[in-house]
Design goal:
seven-stranded parallel β-sheet, Rossmann fold, 49% helix, alpha/beta, globular, 9 helices
């Protein structure tokens, strides 16, 4: 699954699952650009992984909810590396709350990060990939997109939208030799999960869910990252439009 000579963008790559994805891509030989609004954390991650792997790893501040910032991210990558082979849409955000206690402002933020962010990056990067007649897009959704999740009505809906959007792009751009696939993690031990657990409702719900995971543990970020490398590589050249859960068996969708 060599990615030598490839250039990748990973949104939300400063920490958590995104950080693990950046490191795995670089270890496979890719040069990687982290697009993240956490500038300092992204730069620290890029510097550390570059030292570990010997690949070029850079950070560009980018808020995926802003199309202009995403276009600036794309332009920075093209200026530095001349091409974009892999796009990993990992940036995401959530708060656990019963639907009737949510607000329109919360809806807008969740949808903007989790769904519109994916729209923005694909809109910015796909023309370049289509012109070159090659590319792989891996969108990180959520297992809640497939089965729903207590306290995550808007989040689940936004992540389900990513699944349908990805399948449509896979159909539209197969002619351009661009593959689009989706990974749906279950509960993962990340900084975002820790933030959600600060709220009593989130702590109660997530604590109960963990008890039903057949493999009896939370996912670690590095449980998800190897699948990204596979889907981005030529080893997956005949795989597109597919949705795969990485959840320890919590759900087993046929």
């Amino acid at each position: 699954m060599s990615l030598t000579g490839k250039t990748a963008i990973v949104t939300g790559g400063a920490r958590g699952i995104g950080r693990a994805i950046v490191q795995r891509l670089a270890e496979a030989g890719a040069d990687v650009v982290i697009g993240d609004f956490r500038r300092d954390e992204a730069e620290a991650t890029a510097s550390e992984i570059q030292k570990i792997t010997g690949r070029q790893v850079r950070a560009v501040r980018a808020d995926v909810t802003d199309l202009k910032q995403v276009e600036a991210l794309r332009d920075a990558v093209l200026q530095a590396f001349g091409k974009i082979d892999i796009l990993v849409n990992n940036a995401g955000w959530d708060r656990l709350m019963p639907f009737l206690k949510t607000t329109p402002e919360l809806w807008e933020k969740i949808i903007a990060v989790n769904y519109k962010g994916v729209i923005h990056t694909c809109y910015a990067v796909l023309p370049h990939m289509a012109e070159r007649k090659q590319g792989s897009i891996v969108n990180i959704s959520s297992d809640s997109a497939r089965v729903g999740s207590l306290g995550e009505a808007i989040y689940s809906g936004s992540k389900a939208a990513v699944v349908a959007f990805s399948k449509t792009l896979a159909r539209e751009h197969a002619r351009d030799n661009i593959r689009v696939n989706v990974i749906c993690p279950g509960l993962a031990d990340t900084p975002l999960l820790s933030e959600i657990q600060q709220d009593p409702f989130g702590q109660k719900v997530l604590g109960a869910i963990v008890n039903f995971v057949p493999l009896k543990r939370l996912a670690q970020p590095d449980d998800i990252a190897p699948l990204v490398v596979f889907l981005a590589s030529e080893a997956a050249s005949y795989i597109t439009g597919q949705v795969t859960s990485v959840n320890g068996g919590l759900t087993m969708v046929g």
